Amino acid sequence: MDPLDRVVKPKTKRAKRFLEKREPKLQENTKIAMLIKGGNANLRVTEVLKDIYAVKKPFAVLYRKKNITRPFEDQTSLEFFSKKSDCSLFLFGSHNKKRPNNLVIGRMFDYHVLDMIELGVEKFVSLKDVKNSKCPEGTKPMLIFAGDMFDVNEEYRRLKSLLIDFFRGPTVPNIRLAGLEYVLHFTAVDGKIYMRSYKVLLKKSGCKIPRIELEEMGPSLDLVMRRTHLASDDLYKLSLKQPKALKPKKKKNISHDVFGTTYGRIHMQKQDLGKLQTRKMKGLKKRPAEKAAEDSGVSPKKSKSA
Amino acid sequence: MAAVRVEEVLAAAEEQEAEKRRSVVVEKELELEFDLGNLLALDRNPPPAAGLRGAGPQREAQLLALARDNTQLLVAQLWELPAERAGGAGGPLVARLPEPTFRLPREKPPPRPKPPTRWEQFARLKGIRRRKRTSLVWDEQAKEWRRRWGYRRAGGDPARAWLAEVPAGADPEEDQFARLRREKRERVARNELNRLRNLARAHRAGTVVPAAPLHPTGHQSKEELSHVARVARVSTASLGRFQPRLPKESAEPPSRSGGRKRRFEPLLGNLAAERSRQLELLKNMSSKKPVLDITRAVNKQLRQEEAEAAAAKGKKQSQRGKRGRRQQRTGRSSKKSAARRQQQRPGGGSTGGSKRKKA
Fold first, then answer.
1. Could you tell me which residues belong to the region Disordered (chain A) (predicted)?
2. How many CB atoms lie within 10 A of CB B212?
3. Do B200 and A173 touch (CB under 8 A)?
């Protein structure tokens, strides 16, 4: 055995649990985002990171110190951070003359950068600037994407997927309907992306569905897309691959058509024509002697009940 | 007269209904796509660009109106879902969400199946199936059900037996209890070694062979790249013999493991070169001045010091107690196994004993 083949074994139960939590799983954990300040982040970028942290809170890590790194030039430090804090989403903020108020949003696959997209912040309204009531921490937001650009352009499509991944929070089986009070609305027009967050007010409408009123809550951002780094097709495909155990099992002989009608195919045994009930006639009736002979042949249990 | 009145009342009621519904209904050119598992709505209609191009308040109002309409549609969908009151009649209304449909990339690749152990491979080959055995068996002496194994097991613990048979042909002076104890210890040690071997093999299979493909990410380490290049170079029909070379690459193709391959000079060939080589060797041998490669010597010295330090540390650990000693032994046994495999046949008498002497 080479020294390289040695298995690193956890020495304590706690270390074991820690490692188990990080192992790949069938049903994955909720993705956690790390929010990193670059070497020269200005006040606005810092505020943006803080606000996003407030929105994402239980599933985010805010790095308090500056980290001098450039994600588009060298990804090693991001990969290191990702491994360190077991995060697969990141938002990196920086500011310089060439790219003022810069945000890099991205995600990891297997601790390697999968996609990242650079966004410039043109306008920013903070959570604190809007004097309205806020949502409680950890509210699952409703996500809405408006604009044909999100469907037409490949980069925008990937950005949409990235934003959904970033903001959707945990997947839940049930949801309290009155607790739906937070909307994130993304609009893509004229090469700009308007991110707005609103608080939802449910008003009585007289019918079952309530009428919706929205109230500006913050943070709101006007973004422009800058550089992008998208995963190659085969890597992206690899990352989308679902384990076999999670795929729904195919049921045999059941099919659906476009209208949702279910069709079933059944296989019949060959019919035994000897037992076919034909017309009853007195002449074909069994005589008592024949019946007795038959009864004696039947198993004792049955004869008892008879 | 009365009939007219009824119609009027109905019409008024209908109008009222429609009024109520109007506050909830939103018209869109293209229908929205929903993924209710993610609480997600995708609106493919191009937004009114003219209004959005304008300055501050007007644009905000436009965006708010757009967001309101879309949210209304999404909420309508969510309210359609099957819902029930959580925790009795007075509880909050809770809707059951469907599975999310929007495909998002995973965080980590799906877990690899655990590779079979050596025994499992063998069992599959031979078609040996696991046979289920009850954990409790009837103990004839104690007249009760007892465990098949372990503490208070049926038939009594053989290690605690007060009587041991001397096998035929055995040395009558030999302590049979000690022999049994020793054999048991050896079995345990061998089992542990095999377990570690299985683990190491699983580890190797997990890292080296299938997971090696180069991820097309932006960044690869130097080692990774050179490893892949080396493998690619020898992956031809001629094992890389006729592969064109890069300027700084060596002429001979690298071996797969990355080590150097021993090569011999041809028996017949360049006589002059052979003579000069031999003369050089003789000159070196006869000269009084030692040939010293400084870097090599320094490296050697450093390595020696390191090894000594490690040995001293190991000695210190061995004095700590039973637990520390045991851990150390298992660690060492895995390293030494290759050497031991060459020296001895498995099942040879004193593997455990020899190991203890070394430790």
1. 270-306
2. 11
3. no
Pairing relation of β-strands A60-66 and A33-37? parallel
Residues B196, A7: C-beta atoms closer than 8 Å: yes
A141 touches B at CB < 8 Å: yes
Burial B57-73 (b: 16+ CB within 10 A, else e): eebbebbbebbbbbbbb
Subunit contact A145:B41, Cβ cutoff 8 A: yes
- Please give the pLDDT value at position B318: 55
| B38: closest chain A residue by CA | A168
**Contacts (Cβ under 8 Å, ≥6 apart) of B9:** none
Q: Which of A75, A79, A187 sits opposite B47 (nearest CB)?
A: A187
Amino acid at B89: A
Confirm or reject contact between B205 and chain A (CB < 8 A): no
Q: Does residue A304 have a pLDDT over 80?
A: no
Residue A223 is predicted with a pLDDT of 94
> Distance (Å) from the C-alpha of residue B149 to the closest C-alpha of chain A?
26
Q: Residue B69: which pLDDT band, with cuts at 50, 70 and 90?
A: very high
Do B63 and A194 lie within an 8 Å CB cutoff?
A: yes
Residue pLDDT, tens place only, B233-264: 888 888 888 888 888 777 777 766 666 767 78
Query: Does residue B103 sit at the A interface (CB-CB below 8 Å)?
Result: yes
Residues A236-265, mean pLDDT to the nearest whole number: 88
3-state SS, residue A229? strand
Report yes or no: A44 and A38 within 8 Å, Cβ to Cβ: no
Diameter of chain B measured on Cα atoms: 140
DSSP character string of A237-261: HHHHPPPGGGSPPPPTTEEE-TT--
d(CA B36, CA B50): 31
- What pLDDT digit, counting tens, does each position of A166-224 carry? 999 999 999 999 889 999 999 998 889 999 999 999 988 888 889 999 999 989 999 99
Which two tokens mark B265?
């000079």
| Residue A2 to residue B192: CA distance in whole angstroms | 18
Q: Do B67 and A196 touch (CB under 8 A)?
A: yes
Strand (E) positions, chain B?
Answer: 33-35, 40-43, 83-85, 93-96, 136-139, 144-147
Is pLDDT larger for residue B78 or for residue B201?
B78
Q: ipTM beyond 0.90?
A: no
Chain-chain contact of B39 with A200 (C-beta, under 8 angstroms): no
pLDDT at A126: 93
Q: What's the CA gap between B16 and A207, in Å, rounded?
A: 11
Beta-carbon contacts of B42 under 8 Å, excluding residues fewer than 6 positions away, are A144, A145, A150, A151, A160, B32, B33, B34, B35
- Indicate yes or no: CB of B67 within 8 angstroms of CB of A29: no
Q: Residue A242: its chain B contacts at CB < 8 A?
A: 106, 110
Q: Containing H/E element for B343? A: helix B322-343
pLDDT digits (tens, 9 = 90+) for B100-152: 999 999 999 988 888 889 999 999 999 888 889 999 999 998 899 999 998 88
Residue type, position B49, single letter:
A
pLDDT score of A286: 76
CA of B298, closest CA in chain A: separation in Å?
Answer: 24
Residue located via tokens 């939590």: A21
By C-alpha distance, the chain B residue nearest A186 is: B67
Q: Where are the domains of chain B?
A: 2-95
Q: Is the pLDDT of residue B332 over 50?
A: no
- Please identify which residue in the block is written with the tokens 């308040």: B57
A79 touches chain B (CB under 8 A): yes
Residue with tokens 């079933």: A264
**Any idea how long chain A is?**
306
